[in-house]
Amino acid sequence: MSKRVIIIGGGPAGLSAANGLSDLAAKGAVEVVILDKKDHADLVIGQPRALVNPAFADEALLPFDRVLHGPQKPRVIVVAAVTGLHDGAVSFTRHDGRSETLPADAIVVATGSSHRGRFMKNSDGLPKQAWLQRLSEWRTAAGNAKHVLVVGGGVSGVEIAGEFATEHPSCKVTIVNSGPHLCGAGKAMHESVMSGLRSLPGKVEVITGDKVQAEEALALSPRTFTTNAGTAIAGVDMVVCAAGIFPNTSFIHRTRLDPKGFIVVDSTLQAPALTSHNCPVFAIGDVAHCGWGRLRNAQDMGKACVKNLKNLIAGKPLGKVYDTEGGKNWPIFASLGRQQGSASAPIVNKWLARKVKAPSLMVGIAWPKMFGVKDFKLSAAAMGPSPLLPSSKAPLKSRPGVAPSSWVYPGVAHGPGHCGPHGSPHQVVYAPQAPALIAS
Question: How confident is the model over 385-400, as pLDDT tens digits?
Fold first, then answer.
């Protein structure tokens, strides 16, 4: 008799799990159902480029039918919200207001994470055209901006600054980062990123070890923001929030989550606090306490989860399939416009980032190579051209009292604020709540 597996979330982790079951689905051994708020699949890793390039934004979003494999593809249900997990069932509401409960033999929670900023990820589940319209509004504001404040100097914040400095070189950009190093990957990559930012045509200033409170805003009358350490940032007319990520677990009671809102899993990728005798519940990707907010880790967790889903379907005991303590520390890549980049890999870091990430923010590689999307190729409009001039040098400007050799404005030390769970430098900041005021 066919088993039903419900996968909540159609992001990288959920897609990997669903596609891993395509062989059994073709034999009729399993029915796979995906619940997702969106009507399309996306890769958030490409969002900084999507913000400035409309062709890229459009082409990078794919219909689920194109990214799911096999002759018996999973059934995708577009939901307004998942409202609860039950003993062997998932309840949800549709956009027309109807409430439903769907029974399951196994549940996989792959709901990922959300950003405090409204433009970093389609957390509202907007249809594709509505999401593209929201990005168009952002793009219009960016074209008119004179001074953009980017709150958060992780990979996303750095890449947004790089896109601004490439596409809008007349617009000044200031990054405020709570940790001592951009991208949270150590001093070597920080210095490499700083060097790359100096090579861009636009002017980028960087403040580290400090915080600023600023609401995300597309268009402001020029105003001055003051950091916690007292540094004034004058003339800001646009604020971009690239800090603060929280797991999508609002449909689960907080007593079943860890203190930061994540689902705790064991080495089988089951969530002991959610699993019942009748129905195992797995959690993979960003929503799990060991997801680390990385695309490759999400994919690896999806593939590992498939092993135990197949064991379940075959009536075999579940095995240890994932190292929840260490995970895999894949190199961190950061693009800086279309032709520059940096990575945490030794020796070849700049070359690797330029070749692998800068051209398409990995989207042109990830869809066909990691997710098996056939005949995927970004158009010339989506890939460029860029106004980056190889001879252009726009160094970061120092302020009085700051050594020109550092190009960094030190503020109050903030400890491991750039790290995520367990303080690993390869993780990102997560916050269970999303307050109106944003601190990097």
Answer: 544 333 333 444 433 3
* Total-model pTM: 0.85
Q: 298: domain range?
A: 3-116+245-313
Question: Which residue type, as a one-letter code, is found at position 230?
Answer: G
CA distance 349 to 351: 6
Q: Is residue 434 part of a domain?
A: no
CA distance 10 to 110: 7
Is 99 found in the same domain as 14? yes
Based on the fold, state whether residues 229 and 339 are members of the same structural domain.
Answer: yes
Same domain, 223 and 80: no
Torsion sign (Cα): 402, 405, 409, 415: negative
- Residue 122 domain-assigned (yes or no): no
DSSP class of residue 113?
A: E
Sheet harboring 238-241: ordered strands across? Answer: 238-241, 147-151, 172-177, 204-208, 409-410
- DSSP category for residue 291: -
Distances from the Cα of 83 to the Cαs of 35, 89, 90, 138, in angstroms? 12, 11, 8, 31
Question: Smallest Cα–Cα separation from 68: which of 107, 104, 18, 108?
Answer: 18
DSSP secondary structure letter of residue 107: E
CATH number at residue 398: 3.50.50.60
Pair 236, 366 in one domain: yes
Span 283-302, pLDDT tens digits: 999 999 988 778 888 999 99
Q: What is d(CA 67, CA 35) in angstroms, rounded to the nearest whole number?
A: 15
Position 77 scores a pLDDT of 97
**Model confidence at 431: pLDDT above 60:** no
